[in-house]
């Protein structure tokens, strides 16, 4: 038909609401890539509500790793269970996004109200609950907990809640969701009850297979005249995963690409070229977002990984990374952490995908429980995914890190020089 006719047809066939599943506020029933987390979290929280014991759960991970969506799903299942079982009426649910709070201690007010102790302070509720086993169990989710934790008063509230859930009579299942992956460590540090660790779930960023699956599922629900080719979805997934793995970015990119195609051309299918154009507008560099979420010593450990490796994806022994880490700490005038803490940093880096373990044995599963000696852990090889460009992108603008990054660069260069002299596989350093 004539161009005018085609315009009209497009408008009729594709009303704006047809892309509702490509909005970032839409939460689908199924969450591909998070099945394992959902299963574990659901089992744990359900047991807690059915058998009535308190618990603190910290869910952390970079933005766009599906934390909110996963917990929303879990809460709705828990609610359903609560409605069916005999403990019906004895479980309450409260979901608070910390960004909507005016003050940190509003958390306390909300909990007091939900438990039927209006106006009580946390200490008063704690006391009242000692002999109030008939009180409903409260499932309290604090989303965007970074917001609360960024102030002193807020820190105190979260620590108190955590401490409270260590008492058997406490009727609270407390779930805190945050971007900062060290939130739990910081809470435990303030409480100084080292033997009681909260349960921590760190959501690692989605990989490109996950993202593809998620986008496909969402496209199936969407309806548009515009066809989206497999290659475009895969292109967007790879593009997003090479920087942050933030699923929000991927969804946004796909939606923008479709809309651009719908409105600017007569083409009936999305092209990689148009996806690329949208991507260029939206992207930063590789891993930068993840690095930005890391706390100080973990960042330095990340720098050390890069310093100890010559090329992306190169295998480096933990020992060499620890050596580089100590040097960088000295450079930053910081006391290097103990080997045990260092293994925790490596675990965090493994969790967030900055390094990958190469053998079946990951550092994460080898330390802590004393399964392997420190000696053996030090010998484990890791694949380093971050590069100097990532470090520059993430930390390049802060004074301390600028210096560190240039130190990393010179260490890398020194390493390259020694590697040239000795056969590649025999590269060793003494610790
Ligand atoms: N596994 C998944 N499958 C489908 N959609 C997802 C998945 N994970 C996240 N999303 C969607 O991505 C968006 C952002 O996820 P969200 O849970 O808010 O991330 P976070 O809380 O970690 O920042 C939401 O629209 C959510 O529905
Ligand atoms: Mg969220």
UniProtKB/TrEMBL annotation:
InterPro entries: AAA+_ATPase, ATPase_AAA_core, Cdc6_C, Cdc6_ORC1-like_ATPase_lid, ORC1/CDC6, P-loop_NTPase, WH-like_DNA-bd_sf, WH_DNA-bd_sf
GO-annotated biological processes: DNA replication initiation; mitotic DNA replication checkpoint signaling
GO cellular component, one term: nucleus
Single GO molecular function: ATP hydrolysis activity
Keyword Transmembrane: no
Highest taxon in the source lineage: Eukaryota
UniProt cross-references to SMART domains, sorted A to Z: AAA
Pfam families assigned to the protein according to its UniProt record, in alphabetical order: AAA (PF00004), Cdc6-ORC-like_ATPase_lid (PF22606), WHD_Cdc6 (PF09079)
All copies of domain AAA+ ATPase, residue ranges: 53-203
UniProt entry keywords in alphabetical sequence: DNA replication
Region called Disordered, residue ranges: 1-25
Compositional bias ranges of the Basic and acidic residues kind: 1-10
Family label: Belongs to the CDC6/cdc18 family.
Family matches, as PANTHER family: CELL DIVISION CONTROL PROTEIN 6 HOMOLOG (PTHR10763:SF26), CELL DIVISION CONTROL PROTEIN 6-RELATED (PTHR10763)
Name of the protein described by the UniProt record: AAA+ ATPase domain-containing protein
């Amino acid at each position: 038909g004539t161009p005018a006719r085609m315009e009209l047809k497009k408008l009729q066939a594709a009303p704006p609401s047809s892309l509702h599943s490509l909005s970032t506020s839409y939460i689908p029933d199924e969450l591909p890539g998070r099945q394992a987390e959902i299963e574990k979290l659901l089992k744990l929280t359900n047991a807690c509500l059915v058998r009535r014991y308190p618990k603190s759960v910290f869910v952390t991970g970079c933005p766009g790793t599906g934390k909110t969506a996963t917990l929303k799903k879990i809460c709705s299942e828990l609610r359903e269970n609560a409605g069916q079982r005999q403990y019906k009426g004895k479980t309450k649910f409260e979901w608070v996004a910390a960004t909507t709070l005016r003050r940190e201690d509003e958390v306390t007010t909300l909990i007091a109200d939900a438990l039927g102790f209006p106006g009580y302070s946390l200490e008063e509720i704690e006391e009242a609950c000692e002999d109030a086993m008939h009180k409903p169990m409260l499932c309290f989710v604090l989303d965007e907990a970074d917001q609360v934790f960024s102030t002193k008063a807020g820190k105190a509230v979260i620590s108190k809640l955590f401490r409270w859930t260590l008492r058997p009579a406490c009727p609270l299942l407390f779930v805190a969701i945050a971007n900062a992956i060290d939130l739990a460590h910081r809470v435990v540090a303030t409480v100084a009850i080292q033997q009681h660790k909260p349960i921590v779930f760190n959501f690692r960023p989605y990989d490109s297979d996950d993202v593809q699956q998620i986008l496909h599922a969402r496209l199936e629900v969407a309806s548009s005249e515009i066809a989206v080719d497999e290659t475009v979805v895969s292109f967007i997934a790879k593009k997003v995963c090479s920087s942050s793995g933030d699923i929000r970015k991927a969804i946004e990119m796909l939606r923008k690409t479709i809309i651009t195609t719908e409105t600017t051309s007569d083409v009936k299918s999305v092209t990689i070229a148009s996806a690329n154009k949208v991507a260029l507008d939206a992207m930063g560099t590789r891993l930068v977002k993840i690095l930005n979420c890391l706390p100080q010593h973990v960042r330095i450990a990340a720098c050390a990984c890069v310093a100890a490796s010559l090329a992306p994806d190169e295998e480096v022994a933990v020992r060499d990374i620890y050596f580089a880490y100590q040097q960088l700490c000295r450079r930053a005038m910081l006391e290097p952490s103990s080997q045990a803490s260092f293994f925790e940093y490596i675990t965090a880096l493994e969790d967030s995908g900055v390094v990958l373990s190469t053998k079946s044995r990951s550092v994460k599963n080898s330390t802590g429980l004393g399964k392997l000696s420190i000696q053996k852990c030090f010998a484990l090889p890791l694949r380093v995914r971050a590069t100097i460009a990532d470090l520059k992108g993430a930390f390049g603008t802060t004074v301390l890190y600028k210096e560190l990054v240039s130190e990393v660069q010179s260490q890398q260069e020194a390493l390259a020089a020694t590697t040239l002299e000795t056969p590649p596989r025999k590269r060793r350093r003494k610790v």
